[in-house]
Description:
The structure is a single chain. By secondary structure, this protein is an alpha+beta fold. The protein has a single domain (7-124), classed as YdfO-like fold, CATH 3.30.1810. Helices cover 32% and strands 23% of the residues. It has helices spanning 7-18, 24-33, 73-81, 87-96; strands spanning 38-42, 48-51, 56-58, 99-105, 110-115, 120-124. A six-stranded antiparallel β-sheet has the order 3-2-1-4-5-6. A hairpin with a 5-residue loop joins strand 1 (38-42) and strand 2 (48-51). The chain is globular. The chain starts with 6 loop residues before the first helix and ends with a strand. InterPro entries: DUF1398, YdfO-like_sf. This is DUF1398 family protein.
Amino acid sequence: MNDNLTEKEVHKIIERRSTGKTSFGEFLEELSQIGVIQYDINVATGEATYKGQHSEVKTDPQVQFVISTDFNRIQALKAIASIALPFLDFLRELAAAGVSTYNVNIIEKTATYVGIKGDQIVEPLQLS
């Protein structure tokens, strides 16, 4: 496992996922192979921070979504169940549900979704 992440490696994996060439499970496996142990997503901007043991790679903002100030747990769970959606559509649904950030921990196989006021949903990763 590599613990010195490079932008080129990370962007190559992101590109394959965003064009539908890999599933979410394959995406996580490829990230793990280059040393990514977790990543954080800012739902409003789409900016991501991929973290390894000793390094991290940040992506540029892609969008400007408005996060709902009302956290809707049921709507958030429906959005989470739609993780196979294209990335920006997935973020749009999370924003409408009041989710401002989320963290994917590849080692623990969990995703934590956080609302503006601190509400949280912790879910096991759906890898199929």
